[in-house]
Amino acid sequence: MNTRTMMHTTVLALSLLASGVMAAVSPDEAAKLGTSLTPLGAEKAGNADGSIPAWSGGLQPGAAPVAANGFLSDPFPGDKPQFTITAANVAQYKDKLSPGQLAMFQRYPDTYRIPVFQTRRTAAAPQALYDAAKVSALNTETVNDGNGLKNFEKSHNYAFPIPKSGVEVVWNHETRFRGSNMTQVIAQATPQANGTYTIVEFKQDIAYPQMMSDVSPERGANFLFYVKQEIVAPARLAGNVTLVHETIDQVKEPRLAWAYNAGQRRVRRAPQVAYDGPGTASDGMRTADNNDMYNGAPDRYDWKLVGKKELYIPYNNYRLWSTNLKYSDILKPGHINQDLTRYELHRVWEVIGTVKPGARHIYAKRHMFIDEDTWSIAEVDHYDGRGQLWRVGEGFQVLDYQQGASLYAAQTLYDLIAGRYAVLGLMNESKHYNQYGQNFTLKDFTPAALRNAGIR
Q: What Pfam families does the entry give (predicted)?
């Protein structure tokens, strides 16, 4: 049974149960999905001056050629920037830029720029997910002060298509659709201030409980996904492997993580793979919860929903994704090569997370901007305990139009104080694109499997 058929079957079964569950939004509100709202909850109409067009269905499979190794080509190869924002003209556009973007112009006035292209609302997902979003809207609720989800099935993916709070918007980012079970090879770098860097290459297996034949709905009820990550380069780190069982309610059942150290040939529990624990092989330039722009339990923050605004955000970054580029084309001193990027004007949800009294995190505040069409975080500013803007995150979105999945061509995290940055998720020099449809079982994600993967 293929992925889309599996999702349809699950949705139909859940629809029969929906009438017996207390609704999260009213049926009248849920009826807006697919009418005045897109099927995933964005405003369907364009903005007043037409600079943001109406959503008309997004990119569909076959929108552009696919290479033999699976990589997707740019569906808009002829697009040119409409204008470029630089330190010289940034004041004209400051109302449509995040504080972090403005800070980047101050930190790198001679090199940081934002090329702005025509806005193309490319977001799309399989019909089964649109059907499931309506079920989520009617049923899913937060529990444990927003730290868990009630009446939620993982195949829905989008927990709150009509959100009422900041934490619900954060949950939409964490539960967005990213494709089926897959194996991928990605690269990370943490360039020094002078631009020198070492590529760290990861092989990742990612699986979802609802797509695994040996995980029952009961057994997988509080699990969002499983991931096994092996370092394959450089040689000094190769063979180290991390395994994560990502739970939904991490207060009720904390994230389960193990690490295999190739030098010691031992598997150990790894509670540091969470919150502000150091990101794997990142030279201290990112935290564990910086991966995917933000991940993990939301319990250490109070999340305030500010509202919506229009912002120039990285979007449709197929050029940055291109296999015609080498990592050396992208990685430059201070920040990535902005001439390879693409920004567009889109509506975003604005959410501010502030560390709760009595909780701790090296980021005292996170200021997030989440794309309304895909629920992917596009910009996130990180403040230290003194209230100073410290690190600026940018997520360079692409839509996998074959899968209907929102992905990143790159995720960057700029340290304004150190003058360095981390970039994660590069695939330009990988031999194969994400290999979807993997037939994983739970046995592939056990500590024993972790040890086997790391043997060298």
A: DUF1329
DSSP string, 173-197: HHTS---SSEEEEEEEE---TTS--
Stretch (H or E) spanning 137:
helix 127-139
CATH number, position 263: 2.50.20.10
How many angstroms from the chain centroid is the CA of residue 264? Answer: 33
Q: How far is CA 451 from CA 28, 202, 259, 438, in A?
A: 52, 16, 9, 20
Query: Residue 354 burial (CB < 10 Å; 0-12/13-18/19+)?
Result: middle
372-390 pLDDT, tens digit per residue, is: 999 999 999 999 999 999 9
Q: pLDDT digits over 204-223, tens only?
A: 999 999 899 998 887 788 89
Tell me phi and psi for residue 377, to 5 degrees. Answer: -70, 125
**Is the pLDDT reported for residue 18 higher than 90?**
no
Query: Backbone phi, then psi, for 405, in 5-degree steps?
Result: -120, 140
Q: pLDDT of 295-354, one tens digit each?
A: 999 999 999 999 999 999 999 999 999 999 999 999 999 999 999 999 999 999 999 999
Count of structural domains within the chain: 1
The whole domain housing 409 covers 3-454
What six digits make up the tokens of 358? 């009595």
